[in-house]
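Margin note from the TA: students keep mixing up input and output lines. Inputs are the sequences; the output is the structure of the whole complex. Example:
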Amino acid sequence: MGIRILLHIMVVVILSPLLLGITGKTKAFLVGRWGPPLLQPYYDIGKLFRKGNVYSTTTTWIFQAAPVVSMAAVLVSAIFVPFGSLKAPLPFFGDIILFAYLYGLARFFMIIAALDTGSSFEGMGASREAAFSCLAEVVLFLDFIILALLSKSLVLSEMVEGNILSSWQLFGPAILLAGVSYFLVLLAENARIPVDDPATHLELTMVHEVMVLDHSGWDLAYILYGSAIKLFVLGALFVNILVPFHGLPPVMQTIVFWAGMIVLAVGLGIVESCMARLRLNQVPQLLIGAFVFALVGLLVVLIKGV
Amino acid sequence: MSLFLSSLFILCLGAFLLVLLTRSRAMSGLIFLGTLIPGCLLGAAAALGVLIHRAPIDHRLNLRMPAGEFYLGVDPLSAFFLLTITILFLSAGVYGYGYLKSDKERNLSVHYALYHAALISLMLVVTAKNAVLFLVAWELMALSSYFLIMFHDEKKAVREAGYLYLIVTHTGTFCLWVMFLLMARQSGSMDFDQMALASFPLPLAGALFILGIIGFGVKAGFIPLHIWLPHAHPAAPSHISAVLSGVMIKMGVYGLMRTILIIKDFPEWCAVTLLLIGMISGVGGVLYALGQHEIKKLLAYHSVENIGIITLGLGTGLWGQICHNEFAALIGYAGAFLHVFNHAVFKGLLFLSAGSLIRSTRTGEIDRLGGLLKRLPWTGHLFLIGALAICGLPLFNGFVSEWLVYRALFEGMFHFELNGIALSSLAVISLALIGGLAAACFAKAFGAIFLGNSRSIDITHVTENSVLMCVPMAVLGGICVWIGLFPAVMVSFALGAAATMTSSPISSATEGVIIAPLLTAVLVLSILIGTIAILTLLKRTAMKFLPVEKAQTWGCGYAMPTSRMQYTAASFAQPLLQIFRNVLDYRVKGNRPKEYFPEEGEVSSRVTDAAEDFFFRPAFGFIKSLSAKLKVIQCGYTQWYLLYILIFLLMLLVWKMV
């Protein structure tokens, strides 16, 4: 089991920045540029690993610990998610709660690290992050409820692979609605357009990026790596929900899953290319919209009967 | 003599000696600690014995009273609360000794004696086996805690908070008298055991349930009956706030549990009511907390939130019992029990560290503080542990009990009827929202108080308080981490207590089914700790070869940053409060800077308590005006009063004849 856990974590560590590379390439392609190479996110992180650190005199150990804790938490959350024929190595009844709360732990440390700098810009980012993630977490749990009701399970991997094919046949609209709302959560949690623009450089309007203004070197590398992993893990869950490939032979499962991941990365690039980011005060409305989608999904499940 | 009785005896002796020897300060402190520590340890040992063997112990003293026999009994339900009470009273008591030692003006032995009295009354409340004895202990608890709250009685706010508490708690006690009298009428006895044998028809059970909800809910702090909490907790000295919030309000939960255990059969709407109360108190409590800018008031509202979480567990337990799903009932009750204990520990820890903070800085206004982690390392880090625990984050005890409550709610979702599924789903969503909001609130509190720079007070001379204050906090913090990493023991105790509630012994297979996932979760958490260690090690090693510099925080090129430019707690909470402005009374006022060369500006925001301002204040006003009108009959002449007595007697005579 130890080897399977290690394998699972290695897959995430090695492949997660690639997803960002594909998204970046797609965005460049859509606006008619060549864009950075596919492996650019690796180069970026690698460059940071070679740099020294600058610490503000205001900060305490929390500032230095937060990147480590948050990267470790998202990395560990990966072991609950199946990647194609690579099954989740350590499932247990109720792991979805730990899954969601590991992100809570990561977020809490990033928020207090931002407050640790004493900068008002980072305070702003932290405050917005806290507000939006509250709403996102509620939507996430609502989606989990739908999946749990359909699969009668609280194990994340069973919820997304067990009988999801028959659920699609019986409760297609419900899963579709859950999928749409989950996609919006995915965008919000990973600071993608339209919630947040990872490329922006105006502190007053940023959310995630402004929280890490003062981080540098290894800390920043951990943060960037952590967000790549988060996108990978949440994205893998999305592919698992939307593509019911779990009845196929293992080889096909692997192919379909990874193809799904690539399509997701390209899809993210397309979404980001055709949308502008929302104004800050409209982000809650977007998340409430996601909430309504999921609620309607839940109603469909309840009315059709489980 | 049994452990429990000897514990009670030592504490009574201590209280008695403290009242006698009011002169010598050193002596009274010595007696206080000398009786508190063995008393609490013996009490905890008695509770542990019952929890391990899962067999109730009765203590009969042959005290025959008109209202049945007064006797005490420790069953797993009582024992669980007894353990909570003794652990928290012990830590808060030692802390209180350190806290008050420097207070040279007051007569402390009275305060110490009242502390003992409160402890004894709580121990009696959870072990009383007779309704009259229970109510007497209940009243003793209310009175002793009233005097404990009134410690700083020279302050007007404290006196007002004390009176409010006294009025509110007696309103609750009134409902409890009615409830117990009705129960006694049905069963023909005031003994709990006799009452439990009687059968209560469903409508009567519903009526008793409503009385219980009001009577015990006032103590527990269900919204909208919570209005005394945010006044009383900040008014009391911090070690008193810790026991008030940690265990005193849990007596409401205990009372409800005891009532459920006695009546057993309830109509379904009772469980619905409990779940609704849980959701409203949980979400409402944390939203109000988010809008507070005074640390102890913020913590007081968080007590309301946690009572909400406990009630969610309780509601699921009751629902499971009603529709004969014992498994769901068991997990629900176990979650409620464990959260009672956990909340006592982490909220005790938070109140004690808030007290230490206030003692060091002389203020609890969050927006004046900042950067204290460097000045108060013990207080700061222990507050952080408490904050992580109360947010239910993994690695700490709050996660374990919230996990159980989630699990129970999902269990309900899988097995209940349609309305049960719908309500459980709603409850899961509320619990998720509570978790997110609590994290935001404690990130705000911890960040604004302990991180960054001090906003408006000088903290260069702030130093850590005495060891006597730090050690109890460290013990509570240790318990938070212990349960977070090794949950099996406490979960098994909670299950034992839950089995008392469902009145059927729990098989070890069932217990395994509930505990096994938690053990796997612990395995995952150890992987998390390992990963953190590896990542830290990698970074540390690399840093040896790379340059590390110190600099100022990046201020976007602004040349003259001051610490007052930091984001405040009020502004941190603003986006969330803005989102929820329709359910809160959130007001922002002040004159914002205008034009190109602005004058001095200021902005302040506050969240007012809707239950207090829009319901209780008008209601109390109405009662006051009504009683003012009745004043005409109270004229002050003895003759008139004699006439009233005569009229009353005549009325009685007429009534008797008809």
